[in-house]
Write a structure and sequence with these properties.
With 209 residues, the protein is an alpha+beta fold. The chain has 2 domains: 89 residues, Ubiquitin-like (UB roll) (Roll); 88 residues, [2Fe-2S]-binding domain (DNA polymerase, domain 1). It has 5 helices and 6 strands; from the N terminus they run βββαβββαααα. Helix 2 runs antiparallel to helix 5. The chain starts with 7 loop residues before the first strand and ends in a 17-residue tail after the last helix. Bound molecules: FE2/S2 (inorganic) cluster (2 copies). The site of one FE2/S2 (inorganic) cluster (FES) has 12 residues, from loops. It holds the Pfam family Fer2. It comes from Nakamurella endophytica. InterPro entries: 2Fe-2S-bd (IPR002888), 2Fe-2S-bd_dom_sf (IPR036884), 2Fe-2S_ferredoxin-like_sf (IPR036010), 2Fe-2S_ferredoxin-type (IPR001041), 2Fe2S_fd_BS (IPR006058), Aldehyde_Oxdr_Iron-Sulfur (IPR052914), Beta-grasp_dom_sf (IPR012675).
Length: 209
Amino acid sequence: MTAAMPPSPSPRSGSGGPPASTVELVVNGRSRTVRLDNRTSLLDALREELRLTGSKKGCDHGQCGACTVLLDGRRVNSCLVLAVAASGRPVTTVEGLAAGDRLHPVQQAFLDRDAYQCGYCTPGQICSAVGVLAEAAAGWPSAVTPPGRDGADGSVAGLDAAEVRERMSGNICRCGAYANIVPAVLDAAAATAGAGADGSDGGAVGARS
Ligand code: FES
Ligand code: FES
C-alpha cells in the first residue's frame, strides 16, 4: 500500500478563493498530484480532474451507488468522500479493474448476463460487486446471513441470491436490470471461488494496471 501523503492545506488564496489543498490521488496504480478546493468530492476529483468518467454521478447524496469505487480495497460512495481524505490512499475505479485486455470476472459476468440496460449504474454495480466478493471472502456477514454461517471459511461460493440482493442493495438500477445483475454477481462469485477475491490469482482488491 502506498504510504498516505497528508494533503497540504493552504489558507484562502490571495483572491479570497476557497481553501484549497494539494492532494495526491493514487488511482488505478497511478499517482497524480492535483490542487483542489477542500470541498471537492472524490467523485468530482476523479471525473473533473483526472477525467476518469467511468464512475457516475446519480444523486450526489450517497443514495444510488452509481459513484461506487474501491478505496483501500473497500467500496465507498465516492460522492461522500472528500478528495483530501483520500490523499495517498489507493483508489480503484471501474477503469482499473481489467488486466489489459482481460476483463475482471465481474465485468465479464455482467457482459455475459447482459446485466444492464442504459448502463449508467453499471460501473458502480461492478465496483460494488467486486467489493461484495471481497467482503464475502473475508467472512463478513450481511443482514441476511443466518446465525452461525458467517462465511468465515473465506469462500464466496456460498453466496446466494438473497445475499447478493442484500449486499448490493445500495446500488440502485433505475432500469430495473436486477434480474440479470443478481445472476451476474453469482456467476462472478462462482468464477472467483478459490481465487483471490478480486478475481486474480491471489492479490488484494486494487488497481491492476
Ligand atoms: S452519486 Fe454517489 S451515491 Fe449517488
Ligand atoms: S442499467 Fe440503467 S440504471 Fe441500471
